[in-house]
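Checked the freezer inventory, then went back to the computational side. Two predictions to log before the end of the day. The first one is the construct we discussed on Monday; recording sequence and C-alpha coordinates without edits.
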Amino acid sequence: MSTITTTYRAPVPSPSAWRHTTRGAIAAWHCRIAYTTAWFVRAELLLGVLAGASLLVAVRAGALSAPEAQGTALLVLLCRLAAYAAGRRAFVTSEGAAFFKCLVRSTALAALAGTALALAWPAMAAPLPRAASLVLGSSVVSILLRWTTRGLIRRGRLVEDCLILGTTEKATRFFDDLRAAQAGAVAPVANGSLDGSCIVEFEHLRRLAQQGSDSRLVVVEPPEDSQELHEVLLDCKVRGMAVEQAMDAYERLAGRVWVEGLRPEWIVYGRGFRRPASHRAVKRALDLVAAVVLLSVTFPLLLLVALLVKLESPGPALFAQERVGENGRTFVLYKFRSMRSDAEAQSGPVWAGENDARITPLGKVLRKCRLDELPQIWNVLRGEMSFVGPRPERPYFVDLLRQQIPYYDLRHYVTPGITGWAQVSYPYGASIEDAYQKLQYDLYYGKHMSLRFDIEVLVKTVSVVLMGRGAR
Protein backbone atom coordinates (compact mmCIF):
# COMPACT_ATOMS: atom_id res chain seq x y z
CA MET A 1 0.00 0.00 0.00
CA SER A 2 1.16 3.47 -0.71
CA THR A 3 -0.17 6.93 -1.17
CA ILE A 4 0.96 10.03 -2.96
CA THR A 5 0.26 13.65 -2.09
CA THR A 6 1.65 16.91 -3.37
CA THR A 7 4.05 18.77 -1.10
CA TYR A 8 5.52 21.41 -3.45
CA ARG A 9 3.87 24.80 -3.12
CA ALA A 10 5.59 26.75 -5.91
CA PRO A 11 3.37 28.74 -8.29
CA VAL A 12 2.12 26.65 -11.18
CA PRO A 13 3.80 27.73 -14.44
CA SER A 14 1.76 28.40 -17.52
CA PRO A 15 1.14 25.43 -19.84
CA SER A 16 3.52 26.83 -22.44
CA ALA A 17 6.25 27.02 -19.83
CA TRP A 18 6.22 23.34 -19.03
CA ARG A 19 5.22 21.89 -22.37
CA HIS A 20 8.30 23.40 -23.98
CA THR A 21 10.85 23.69 -21.23
CA THR A 22 14.08 25.47 -21.95
CA ARG A 23 17.20 23.41 -22.52
CA GLY A 24 18.60 22.15 -19.25
CA ALA A 25 15.27 22.15 -17.41
CA ILE A 26 12.21 19.95 -17.14
CA ALA A 27 8.77 20.10 -15.52
CA ALA A 28 8.50 18.22 -12.22
CA TRP A 29 5.87 17.28 -9.68
CA HIS A 30 7.23 17.00 -6.15
CA CYS A 31 5.40 14.55 -3.93
CA ARG A 32 5.89 12.13 -1.08
CA ILE A 33 4.97 8.46 -1.11
CA ALA A 34 4.20 6.53 2.06
CA TYR A 35 4.72 2.75 2.16
CA THR A 36 2.88 0.63 4.71
CA THR A 37 2.57 -2.86 3.22
CA ALA A 38 6.02 -4.09 4.27
CA TRP A 39 5.60 -2.47 7.70
CA PHE A 40 2.24 -4.19 8.27
CA VAL A 41 3.57 -7.55 7.14
CA ARG A 42 6.62 -7.35 9.40
CA ALA A 43 4.61 -6.14 12.38
CA GLU A 44 1.96 -8.83 12.06
CA LEU A 45 4.55 -11.55 11.50
CA LEU A 46 6.38 -10.43 14.64
CA LEU A 47 3.15 -10.47 16.63
CA GLY A 48 2.40 -13.93 15.22
CA VAL A 49 5.79 -15.24 16.28
CA LEU A 50 5.31 -13.81 19.78
CA ALA A 51 1.83 -15.35 20.04
CA GLY A 52 3.14 -18.73 18.86
CA ALA A 53 6.01 -18.62 21.34
CA SER A 54 3.60 -17.79 24.16
CA LEU A 55 1.41 -20.76 23.26
CA LEU A 56 4.41 -23.11 23.21
CA VAL A 57 5.42 -21.92 26.66
CA ALA A 58 1.86 -22.44 27.92
CA VAL A 59 1.79 -26.00 26.52
CA ARG A 60 5.18 -26.83 28.09
CA ALA A 61 4.00 -25.39 31.41
CA GLY A 62 0.83 -27.49 31.28
CA ALA A 63 -1.47 -24.47 31.22
CA LEU A 64 -2.86 -25.51 27.83
CA SER A 65 -3.32 -28.83 26.10
CA ALA A 66 -2.02 -29.25 22.55
CA PRO A 67 -5.55 -29.15 20.98
CA GLU A 68 -6.43 -26.03 22.98
CA ALA A 69 -3.19 -24.35 21.85
CA GLN A 70 -3.92 -25.26 18.24
CA GLY A 71 -7.45 -23.89 18.52
CA THR A 72 -6.16 -20.69 20.12
CA ALA A 73 -3.56 -20.24 17.38
CA LEU A 74 -6.20 -20.78 14.71
CA LEU A 75 -8.51 -18.26 16.37
CA VAL A 76 -5.71 -15.68 16.49
CA LEU A 77 -5.11 -16.23 12.78
CA LEU A 78 -8.83 -15.89 12.03
CA CYS A 79 -8.96 -12.63 14.01
CA ARG A 80 -6.17 -11.11 11.92
CA LEU A 81 -7.82 -12.34 8.71
CA ALA A 82 -11.02 -10.67 9.90
CA ALA A 83 -9.14 -7.39 10.25
CA TYR A 84 -7.79 -7.86 6.73
CA ALA A 85 -11.27 -8.65 5.38
CA ALA A 86 -12.76 -5.58 7.07
CA GLY A 87 -10.26 -3.41 5.22
CA ARG A 88 -6.77 -3.20 6.67
CA ARG A 89 -6.09 -0.04 4.66
CA ALA A 90 -9.06 1.62 6.30
CA PHE A 91 -7.49 1.15 9.74
CA VAL A 92 -4.79 3.62 8.64
CA THR A 93 -6.71 5.98 6.38
CA SER A 94 -10.13 6.26 8.00
CA GLU A 95 -11.03 9.03 10.36
CA GLY A 96 -13.56 9.14 13.19
CA ALA A 97 -16.78 7.25 12.51
CA ALA A 98 -15.35 5.48 9.45
CA PHE A 99 -12.53 4.00 11.52
CA PHE A 100 -14.95 2.93 14.23
CA LYS A 101 -17.11 1.24 11.61
CA CYS A 102 -14.13 -0.73 10.33
CA LEU A 103 -13.21 -1.72 13.87
CA VAL A 104 -16.74 -2.93 14.67
CA ARG A 105 -16.85 -4.83 11.38
CA SER A 106 -13.53 -6.51 12.11
CA THR A 107 -14.59 -7.47 15.64
CA ALA A 108 -17.90 -8.89 14.42
CA LEU A 109 -16.17 -10.98 11.76
CA ALA A 110 -13.66 -12.28 14.28
CA ALA A 111 -16.47 -13.23 16.69
CA LEU A 112 -18.32 -14.99 13.87
CA ALA A 113 -15.16 -16.87 12.87
CA GLY A 114 -14.57 -17.92 16.49
CA THR A 115 -18.14 -19.19 16.79
CA ALA A 116 -17.83 -21.18 13.57
CA LEU A 117 -14.54 -22.67 14.81
CA ALA A 118 -16.12 -23.73 18.11
CA LEU A 119 -19.05 -25.40 16.33
CA ALA A 120 -16.85 -27.15 13.76
CA TRP A 121 -14.14 -28.42 16.15
CA PRO A 122 -15.40 -28.39 19.76
CA ALA A 123 -12.24 -30.11 21.00
CA MET A 124 -10.12 -27.21 19.75
CA ALA A 125 -12.47 -24.47 20.93
CA ALA A 126 -11.11 -22.03 23.48
CA PRO A 127 -13.21 -21.28 26.60
CA LEU A 128 -15.54 -18.34 26.14
CA PRO A 129 -13.56 -15.88 28.33
CA ARG A 130 -10.33 -16.65 26.47
CA ALA A 131 -12.02 -16.49 23.05
CA ALA A 132 -13.62 -13.15 23.92
CA SER A 133 -10.29 -11.75 25.12
CA LEU A 134 -8.58 -12.88 21.89
CA VAL A 135 -11.25 -11.23 19.73
CA LEU A 136 -11.08 -7.99 21.69
CA GLY A 137 -7.29 -8.21 21.80
CA SER A 138 -7.20 -8.40 18.00
CA SER A 139 -9.14 -5.12 17.87
CA VAL A 140 -6.63 -3.55 20.28
CA VAL A 141 -3.80 -4.76 18.02
CA SER A 142 -5.48 -3.08 15.05
CA ILE A 143 -5.73 0.18 16.99
CA LEU A 144 -2.08 -0.01 18.04
CA LEU A 145 -0.93 -0.75 14.49
CA ARG A 146 -2.95 2.19 13.21
CA TRP A 147 -1.56 4.54 15.87
CA THR A 148 2.03 3.37 15.31
CA THR A 149 1.81 3.56 11.51
CA ARG A 150 0.32 7.04 11.45
CA GLY A 151 2.90 8.19 13.99
CA LEU A 152 5.78 6.86 11.89
CA ILE A 153 4.41 8.58 8.79
CA ARG A 154 4.08 11.89 10.63
CA ARG A 155 7.72 11.59 11.70
CA GLY A 156 8.88 11.05 8.14
CA ARG A 157 9.34 7.28 8.41
CA LEU A 158 7.91 4.89 5.82
CA VAL A 159 7.90 7.77 3.32
CA GLU A 160 9.93 8.62 0.26
CA ASP A 161 10.37 11.88 -1.63
CA CYS A 162 9.57 11.59 -5.31
CA LEU A 163 10.08 13.84 -8.33
CA ILE A 164 7.89 13.03 -11.33
CA LEU A 165 9.62 14.38 -14.44
CA GLY A 166 7.99 15.10 -17.80
CA THR A 167 7.33 17.76 -20.42
CA THR A 168 3.98 16.86 -21.96
CA GLU A 169 0.31 16.65 -21.08
CA LYS A 170 0.87 12.94 -20.49
CA ALA A 171 3.05 13.72 -17.47
CA THR A 172 0.23 15.74 -15.97
CA ARG A 173 -2.23 12.92 -16.56
CA PHE A 174 0.20 10.45 -15.02
CA PHE A 175 0.47 12.61 -11.92
CA ASP A 176 -3.32 12.96 -11.67
CA ASP A 177 -3.94 9.25 -12.36
CA LEU A 178 -1.41 8.19 -9.75
CA ARG A 179 -2.93 10.47 -7.13
CA ALA A 180 -6.41 9.22 -7.98
CA ALA A 181 -5.28 5.59 -7.82
CA GLN A 182 -3.84 6.15 -4.36
CA ALA A 183 -6.72 8.18 -2.96
CA GLY A 184 -7.50 6.81 0.50
CA ALA A 185 -4.83 4.10 0.38
CA VAL A 186 -3.10 5.36 3.54
CA ALA A 187 -3.15 8.51 5.63
CA PRO A 188 -1.80 11.58 3.79
CA VAL A 189 1.81 12.30 4.65
CA ALA A 190 1.47 16.02 3.97
CA ASN A 191 -0.96 18.63 2.74
CA GLY A 192 -0.22 20.71 -0.30
CA SER A 193 -1.64 22.30 -3.39
CA LEU A 194 -3.33 19.98 -5.84
CA ASP A 195 -1.28 21.38 -8.70
CA GLY A 196 2.33 21.32 -7.63
CA SER A 197 4.15 21.32 -10.95
CA CYS A 198 7.29 23.43 -11.31
CA ILE A 199 10.34 23.78 -13.54
CA VAL A 200 13.45 21.97 -12.29
CA GLU A 201 16.88 22.58 -13.77
CA PHE A 202 19.09 19.62 -14.59
CA GLU A 203 21.78 21.13 -12.37
CA HIS A 204 19.39 20.88 -9.43
CA LEU A 205 19.03 17.15 -10.07
CA ARG A 206 22.82 16.81 -10.17
CA ARG A 207 23.11 18.59 -6.83
CA LEU A 208 20.53 16.26 -5.29
CA ALA A 209 22.61 13.25 -6.39
CA GLN A 210 25.87 14.79 -5.18
CA GLN A 211 24.31 15.52 -1.79
CA GLY A 212 23.33 11.86 -1.43
CA SER A 213 19.59 12.49 -1.72
CA ASP A 214 17.37 9.42 -1.42
CA SER A 215 14.66 10.96 -3.60
CA ARG A 216 13.14 8.81 -6.33
CA LEU A 217 13.03 10.14 -9.91
CA VAL A 218 10.13 8.96 -12.06
CA VAL A 219 10.41 9.80 -15.76
CA VAL A 220 7.08 9.92 -17.58
CA GLU A 221 8.16 11.08 -21.00
CA PRO A 222 11.51 12.72 -21.73
CA PRO A 223 11.73 15.71 -24.11
CA GLU A 224 12.57 15.11 -27.75
CA ASP A 225 16.15 16.30 -27.22
CA SER A 226 16.76 14.15 -24.14
CA GLN A 227 20.49 13.41 -24.36
CA GLU A 228 21.39 15.87 -21.64
CA LEU A 229 18.58 14.60 -19.42
CA HIS A 230 19.77 11.02 -19.87
CA GLU A 231 23.27 12.04 -18.84
CA VAL A 232 21.88 13.68 -15.71
CA LEU A 233 19.72 10.63 -14.89
CA LEU A 234 22.73 8.37 -15.39
CA ASP A 235 24.72 10.51 -12.96
CA CYS A 236 21.86 10.33 -10.44
CA LYS A 237 21.54 6.56 -10.88
CA VAL A 238 25.21 5.72 -10.33
CA ARG A 239 25.30 8.02 -7.29
CA GLY A 240 22.58 5.94 -5.63
CA MET A 241 19.32 7.71 -6.48
CA ALA A 242 16.40 5.54 -7.61
CA VAL A 243 15.42 6.25 -11.22
CA GLU A 244 12.26 4.64 -12.57
CA GLN A 245 10.08 4.71 -15.67
CA ALA A 246 6.51 5.87 -15.23
CA MET A 247 5.02 2.52 -16.27
CA ASP A 248 6.98 0.63 -13.63
CA ALA A 249 6.27 3.21 -10.93
CA TYR A 250 2.55 3.22 -11.62
CA GLU A 251 2.37 -0.57 -11.60
CA ARG A 252 4.27 -0.79 -8.33
CA LEU A 253 2.32 1.93 -6.53
CA ALA A 254 -1.19 1.48 -7.93
CA GLY A 255 -1.35 -2.28 -8.41
CA ARG A 256 -2.44 -1.90 -12.02
CA VAL A 257 -1.01 -1.13 -15.46
CA TRP A 258 -1.10 2.45 -16.75
CA VAL A 259 -2.79 1.83 -20.10
CA GLU A 260 -2.33 5.40 -21.33
CA GLY A 261 1.45 5.06 -21.25
CA LEU A 262 1.50 1.44 -22.43
CA ARG A 263 3.75 0.59 -25.36
CA PRO A 264 4.21 -2.87 -26.94
CA GLU A 265 7.95 -2.88 -26.15
CA TRP A 266 7.18 -2.53 -22.43
CA ILE A 267 5.38 -5.88 -22.61
CA VAL A 268 7.77 -7.53 -25.06
CA TYR A 269 11.01 -6.71 -23.23
CA GLY A 270 9.70 -6.50 -19.69
CA ARG A 271 9.08 -9.20 -17.13
CA GLY A 272 5.81 -11.02 -16.68
CA PHE A 273 3.01 -11.89 -19.10
CA ARG A 274 4.32 -15.46 -19.21
CA ARG A 275 2.10 -18.50 -18.87
CA PRO A 276 4.29 -21.58 -18.41
CA ALA A 277 2.64 -24.88 -19.27
CA SER A 278 3.31 -26.11 -15.73
CA HIS A 279 1.39 -23.19 -14.23
CA ARG A 280 -1.54 -23.71 -16.57
CA ALA A 281 -1.65 -27.44 -15.74
CA VAL A 282 -1.54 -26.90 -11.98
CA LYS A 283 -4.13 -24.13 -12.12
CA ARG A 284 -6.44 -26.27 -14.23
CA ALA A 285 -6.07 -29.20 -11.83
CA LEU A 286 -6.86 -27.01 -8.83
CA ASP A 287 -9.86 -25.52 -10.66
CA LEU A 288 -11.24 -29.01 -11.33
CA VAL A 289 -10.77 -30.18 -7.73
CA ALA A 290 -12.26 -26.98 -6.29
CA ALA A 291 -15.19 -27.07 -8.74
CA VAL A 292 -16.08 -30.67 -7.86
CA VAL A 293 -15.85 -30.00 -4.12
CA LEU A 294 -17.77 -26.72 -4.33
CA LEU A 295 -20.48 -28.23 -6.53
CA SER A 296 -20.92 -31.11 -4.08
CA VAL A 297 -21.14 -28.80 -1.08
CA THR A 298 -23.43 -26.19 -2.64
CA PHE A 299 -25.74 -28.51 -4.58
CA PRO A 300 -28.63 -28.17 -2.06
CA LEU A 301 -28.15 -24.38 -2.12
CA LEU A 302 -28.23 -24.39 -5.93
CA LEU A 303 -31.57 -26.21 -5.89
CA LEU A 304 -32.98 -23.82 -3.29
CA VAL A 305 -31.91 -20.69 -5.18
CA ALA A 306 -33.28 -22.09 -8.46
CA LEU A 307 -36.63 -22.76 -6.78
CA LEU A 308 -36.79 -19.27 -5.26
CA VAL A 309 -36.00 -17.64 -8.62
CA LYS A 310 -38.77 -19.63 -10.31
CA LEU A 311 -41.29 -18.76 -7.60
CA GLU A 312 -40.45 -15.04 -7.54
CA SER A 313 -40.90 -14.13 -11.20
CA PRO A 314 -41.83 -15.82 -14.49
CA GLY A 315 -39.00 -17.12 -16.61
CA PRO A 316 -36.20 -19.67 -16.38
CA ALA A 317 -34.15 -20.00 -13.20
CA LEU A 318 -30.90 -20.14 -15.15
CA PHE A 319 -29.78 -17.35 -17.43
CA ALA A 320 -27.55 -18.27 -20.38
CA GLN A 321 -25.56 -15.55 -22.13
CA GLU A 322 -22.80 -15.56 -24.73
CA ARG A 323 -19.45 -14.25 -23.52
CA VAL A 324 -15.97 -13.79 -25.00
CA GLY A 325 -13.39 -16.09 -23.45
CA GLU A 326 -9.73 -16.97 -23.87
CA ASN A 327 -8.22 -16.15 -27.27
CA GLY A 328 -11.45 -14.46 -28.31
CA ARG A 329 -13.50 -17.68 -28.40
CA THR A 330 -17.14 -17.29 -27.39
CA PHE A 331 -18.90 -19.57 -24.93
CA VAL A 332 -22.20 -19.70 -23.06
CA LEU A 333 -21.99 -18.43 -19.48
CA TYR A 334 -24.60 -19.54 -16.92
CA LYS A 335 -25.99 -17.52 -14.04
CA PHE A 336 -29.04 -17.53 -11.85
CA ARG A 337 -31.46 -15.03 -13.35
CA SER A 338 -31.48 -11.84 -11.28
CA MET A 339 -33.49 -9.64 -13.68
CA ARG A 340 -36.87 -9.80 -15.31
CA SER A 341 -36.93 -12.24 -18.21
CA ASP A 342 -37.72 -9.37 -20.62
CA ALA A 343 -35.00 -7.06 -19.25
CA GLU A 344 -33.53 -6.20 -22.68
CA ALA A 345 -36.55 -6.77 -24.86
CA GLN A 346 -36.83 -3.07 -25.74
CA SER A 347 -33.45 -1.58 -24.85
CA GLY A 348 -31.12 -4.18 -26.37
CA PRO A 349 -27.72 -4.88 -24.74
CA VAL A 350 -27.04 -2.39 -21.94
CA TRP A 351 -24.87 -2.46 -18.84
CA ALA A 352 -26.66 -3.07 -15.58
CA GLY A 353 -26.76 -0.02 -13.33
CA GLU A 354 -26.09 -0.06 -9.60
CA ASN A 355 -29.79 0.44 -8.79
CA ASP A 356 -31.15 -1.06 -11.99
CA ALA A 357 -34.96 -1.22 -12.00
CA ARG A 358 -34.80 -4.45 -14.03
CA ILE A 359 -33.28 -6.34 -11.11
CA THR A 360 -35.80 -8.32 -9.06
CA PRO A 361 -35.86 -8.07 -5.23
CA LEU A 362 -34.42 -11.58 -4.93
CA GLY A 363 -31.92 -10.72 -7.67
CA LYS A 364 -30.56 -7.86 -5.55
CA VAL A 365 -29.80 -10.30 -2.75
CA LEU A 366 -28.26 -12.83 -5.11
CA ARG A 367 -26.03 -10.23 -6.75
CA LYS A 368 -25.02 -8.74 -3.40
CA CYS A 369 -23.91 -12.16 -2.10
CA ARG A 370 -22.60 -13.31 -5.50
CA LEU A 371 -24.89 -16.34 -5.37
CA ASP A 372 -26.01 -15.66 -8.94
CA GLU A 373 -22.50 -16.65 -10.07
CA LEU A 374 -22.59 -20.18 -8.63
CA PRO A 375 -23.77 -21.88 -11.87
CA GLN A 376 -20.48 -20.80 -13.45
CA ILE A 377 -18.90 -23.71 -11.60
CA TRP A 378 -20.17 -25.66 -14.63
CA ASN A 379 -18.21 -23.34 -16.91
CA VAL A 380 -15.11 -24.03 -14.81
CA LEU A 381 -15.64 -27.79 -15.15
CA ARG A 382 -15.93 -27.39 -18.92
CA GLY A 383 -12.63 -25.48 -19.04
CA GLU A 384 -14.25 -22.29 -20.36
CA MET A 385 -13.50 -20.36 -17.17
CA SER A 386 -11.24 -20.44 -14.14
CA PHE A 387 -12.07 -19.40 -10.59
CA VAL A 388 -9.72 -16.40 -10.95
CA GLY A 389 -9.22 -14.33 -14.08
CA PRO A 390 -10.62 -11.34 -15.98
CA ARG A 391 -14.42 -11.31 -16.05
CA PRO A 392 -15.68 -12.35 -19.51
CA GLU A 393 -17.64 -9.67 -21.36
CA ARG A 394 -20.45 -9.91 -23.90
CA PRO A 395 -19.45 -9.81 -27.61
CA TYR A 396 -21.48 -6.62 -28.16
CA PHE A 397 -19.54 -4.73 -25.50
CA VAL A 398 -16.22 -6.29 -26.52
CA ASP A 399 -16.64 -4.89 -30.04
CA LEU A 400 -17.51 -1.50 -28.57
CA LEU A 401 -14.62 -1.45 -26.10
CA ARG A 402 -12.08 -2.56 -28.70
CA GLN A 403 -12.78 0.65 -30.59
CA GLN A 404 -12.63 2.88 -27.52
CA ILE A 405 -9.86 1.40 -25.35
CA PRO A 406 -6.33 0.62 -26.59
CA TYR A 407 -4.97 -2.88 -25.91
CA TYR A 408 -8.37 -4.11 -24.74
CA ASP A 409 -7.88 -7.47 -26.48
CA LEU A 410 -4.84 -8.24 -24.31
CA ARG A 411 -7.18 -9.38 -21.54
CA HIS A 412 -8.38 -12.22 -23.78
CA TYR A 413 -5.02 -14.00 -23.60
CA VAL A 414 -5.93 -15.12 -20.08
CA THR A 415 -8.65 -17.60 -19.13
CA PRO A 416 -11.63 -15.60 -17.78
CA GLY A 417 -12.66 -16.09 -14.18
CA ILE A 418 -15.63 -16.06 -11.83
CA THR A 419 -13.75 -13.44 -9.82
CA GLY A 420 -10.68 -11.38 -10.62
CA TRP A 421 -8.23 -8.71 -9.52
CA ALA A 422 -10.38 -6.01 -11.11
CA GLN A 423 -13.51 -7.23 -9.31
CA VAL A 424 -11.91 -7.05 -5.85
CA SER A 425 -10.00 -3.81 -6.51
CA TYR A 426 -12.56 -1.64 -8.31
CA PRO A 427 -16.26 -1.02 -7.60
CA TYR A 428 -18.92 -2.19 -9.98
CA GLY A 429 -18.75 -0.33 -13.29
CA ALA A 430 -21.22 0.25 -16.08
CA SER A 431 -19.45 2.55 -18.52
CA ILE A 432 -16.54 2.73 -20.92
CA GLU A 433 -14.51 4.63 -18.33
CA ASP A 434 -15.11 1.86 -15.79
CA ALA A 435 -14.09 -0.75 -18.38
CA TYR A 436 -10.90 1.26 -18.99
CA GLN A 437 -10.07 1.27 -15.29
CA LYS A 438 -10.77 -2.45 -14.91
CA LEU A 439 -8.60 -3.24 -17.93
CA GLN A 440 -5.64 -1.80 -16.03
CA TYR A 441 -6.24 -4.29 -13.22
CA ASP A 442 -6.79 -7.17 -15.67
CA LEU A 443 -3.47 -6.44 -17.37
CA TYR A 444 -1.74 -6.31 -14.00
CA TYR A 445 -3.18 -9.74 -13.22
CA GLY A 446 -2.07 -11.04 -16.61
CA LYS A 447 1.47 -9.83 -15.97
CA HIS A 448 1.77 -11.18 -12.42
CA MET A 449 -0.44 -14.27 -12.72
CA SER A 450 0.54 -16.93 -10.18
CA LEU A 451 -1.09 -19.33 -7.75
CA ARG A 452 -0.17 -17.05 -4.85
CA PHE A 453 -1.85 -14.13 -6.60
CA ASP A 454 -4.94 -16.29 -7.18
CA ILE A 455 -5.11 -17.07 -3.47
CA GLU A 456 -4.90 -13.34 -2.66
CA VAL A 457 -7.76 -12.62 -5.06
CA LEU A 458 -9.89 -15.40 -3.55
CA VAL A 459 -9.27 -14.12 -0.02
CA LYS A 460 -10.25 -10.61 -1.09
CA THR A 461 -13.32 -12.03 -2.83
CA VAL A 462 -14.44 -13.56 0.46
CA SER A 463 -13.94 -10.14 2.05
CA VAL A 464 -16.01 -8.44 -0.67
CA VAL A 465 -18.84 -10.98 -0.27
CA LEU A 466 -18.87 -10.84 3.52
CA MET A 467 -18.81 -7.04 3.52
CA GLY A 468 -21.39 -6.79 0.73
CA ARG A 469 -19.21 -4.39 -1.23
CA GLY A 470 -19.44 -3.76 -4.95
CA ALA A 471 -22.86 -5.13 -5.82
CA ARG A 472 -22.97 -5.68 -9.54
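The second is the one RB wanted added to the comparison set:
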Amino acid sequence: MEWTPIVGCAYGATIVVATPTTTADITIQLTDFAGNALTEAASIMCYVSSDADGLTYGDFDSMDTTSSGAGDCLEVVADILWLLISEEDGTIAVTADGSGADTMYLNLVMPNGRIVHSTVITFSG
Protein backbone atom coordinates (compact mmCIF):
# COMPACT_ATOMS: atom_id res chain seq x y z
CA MET A 1 0.00 0.00 0.00
CA GLU A 2 1.39 3.37 -0.99
CA TRP A 3 1.14 6.26 1.46
CA THR A 4 -0.28 9.48 0.04
CA PRO A 5 -0.03 12.68 2.09
CA ILE A 6 -3.12 14.80 2.57
CA VAL A 7 -2.79 17.85 0.34
CA GLY A 8 -4.01 21.27 1.49
CA CYS A 9 -4.01 20.33 5.16
CA ALA A 10 -2.04 22.13 7.88
CA TYR A 11 0.74 19.84 9.09
CA GLY A 12 3.08 22.36 10.69
CA ALA A 13 3.44 26.05 11.37
CA THR A 14 5.91 28.84 11.89
CA ILE A 15 5.03 31.16 14.78
CA VAL A 16 6.63 34.61 15.05
CA VAL A 17 6.03 36.60 18.24
CA ALA A 18 6.77 40.33 18.15
CA THR A 19 8.38 41.75 21.29
CA PRO A 20 5.52 41.78 23.80
CA THR A 21 4.62 44.54 26.24
CA THR A 22 1.08 44.34 27.61
CA THR A 23 0.10 42.84 24.23
CA ALA A 24 1.89 40.57 21.78
CA ASP A 25 1.39 40.47 18.02
CA ILE A 26 1.69 36.87 16.81
CA THR A 27 1.97 35.86 13.16
CA ILE A 28 1.37 32.24 12.16
CA GLN A 29 2.19 30.66 8.80
CA LEU A 30 0.55 27.26 8.36
CA THR A 31 2.59 24.77 6.33
CA ASP A 32 1.92 21.49 4.54
CA PHE A 33 3.68 18.13 5.05
CA ALA A 34 6.66 19.33 2.94
CA GLY A 35 7.07 22.57 4.93
CA ASN A 36 5.62 24.79 2.21
CA ALA A 37 3.23 27.63 3.04
CA LEU A 38 -0.38 26.57 2.54
CA THR A 39 -2.07 27.96 -0.54
CA GLU A 40 -5.61 27.68 0.79
CA ALA A 41 -7.49 28.54 3.95
CA ALA A 42 -7.31 26.07 6.85
CA SER A 43 -8.37 25.95 10.49
CA ILE A 44 -6.59 24.82 13.63
CA MET A 45 -7.24 24.86 17.36
CA CYS A 46 -4.88 26.62 19.75
CA TYR A 47 -4.49 26.96 23.49
CA VAL A 48 -2.30 28.79 25.98
CA SER A 49 0.11 27.17 28.41
CA SER A 50 2.44 28.39 31.12
CA ASP A 51 5.14 25.86 30.20
CA ALA A 52 7.12 25.28 26.99
CA ASP A 53 5.82 21.71 26.57
CA GLY A 54 2.18 22.83 26.55
CA LEU A 55 1.26 20.62 29.52
CA THR A 56 0.09 23.25 32.02
CA TYR A 57 -2.78 25.47 30.93
CA GLY A 58 -2.29 29.20 31.10
CA ASP A 59 -4.44 32.07 29.94
CA PHE A 60 -4.38 35.32 28.03
CA ASP A 61 -6.70 38.16 29.04
CA SER A 62 -7.91 37.97 25.44
CA MET A 63 -6.83 37.14 21.90
CA ASP A 64 -8.23 38.44 18.64
CA THR A 65 -7.20 39.02 15.04
CA THR A 66 -4.86 41.95 14.50
CA SER A 67 -5.92 45.18 12.86
CA SER A 68 -4.47 43.82 9.59
CA GLY A 69 -7.26 41.24 9.70
CA ALA A 70 -5.27 38.16 8.64
CA GLY A 71 -7.55 35.22 9.31
CA ASP A 72 -10.08 34.86 12.07
CA CYS A 73 -9.95 33.98 15.75
CA LEU A 74 -12.98 32.44 17.45
CA GLU A 75 -12.91 31.95 21.22
CA VAL A 76 -14.08 28.47 22.27
CA VAL A 77 -13.18 28.46 26.00
CA ALA A 78 -12.72 31.87 27.65
CA ASP A 79 -9.08 33.03 27.53
CA ILE A 80 -7.69 29.49 26.98
CA LEU A 81 -8.89 27.82 23.75
CA TRP A 82 -9.48 29.27 20.26
CA LEU A 83 -10.29 28.14 16.74
CA LEU A 84 -8.04 29.94 14.24
CA ILE A 85 -8.94 30.22 10.56
CA SER A 86 -6.26 31.28 8.11
CA GLU A 87 -6.32 33.46 5.05
CA GLU A 88 -6.09 31.75 1.64
CA ASP A 89 -2.29 31.81 1.94
CA GLY A 90 -2.24 30.00 5.31
CA THR A 91 -1.48 33.11 7.39
CA ILE A 92 -3.05 34.11 10.68
CA ALA A 93 -2.26 37.28 12.66
CA VAL A 94 -3.50 37.69 16.22
CA THR A 95 -2.89 39.99 19.15
CA ALA A 96 -2.79 38.46 22.62
CA ASP A 97 -3.34 40.54 25.76
CA GLY A 98 -1.50 39.56 28.92
CA SER A 99 -1.95 40.57 32.51
CA GLY A 100 0.88 41.55 34.79
CA ALA A 101 4.27 40.02 34.08
CA ASP A 102 2.95 36.72 32.73
CA THR A 103 5.05 34.22 30.78
CA MET A 104 2.96 32.15 28.37
CA TYR A 105 3.22 29.97 25.25
CA LEU A 106 0.80 29.62 22.35
CA ASN A 107 0.27 26.00 21.30
CA LEU A 108 -1.23 25.09 17.92
CA VAL A 109 -3.00 21.75 17.60
CA MET A 110 -2.52 20.50 14.05
CA PRO A 111 -5.27 18.37 12.43
CA ASN A 112 -3.05 15.29 12.75
CA GLY A 113 -2.61 15.81 16.51
CA ARG A 114 0.87 17.39 16.41
CA ILE A 115 1.35 20.36 18.71
CA VAL A 116 3.47 23.29 17.54
CA HIS A 117 4.69 25.56 20.37
CA SER A 118 5.57 29.25 20.19
CA THR A 119 8.65 30.73 21.76
CA VAL A 120 8.11 32.22 25.19
CA ILE A 121 5.76 35.22 25.33
CA THR A 122 6.70 37.40 28.31
CA PHE A 123 4.35 40.26 29.03
CA SER A 124 5.86 43.19 30.90
CA GLY A 125 2.63 44.16 32.59
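For RB: The mean pLDDT is 88. Residues 12-122 form a domain with the Immunoglobulin-like fold (CATH 2.60.40.10). Let me know if you want it refolded.
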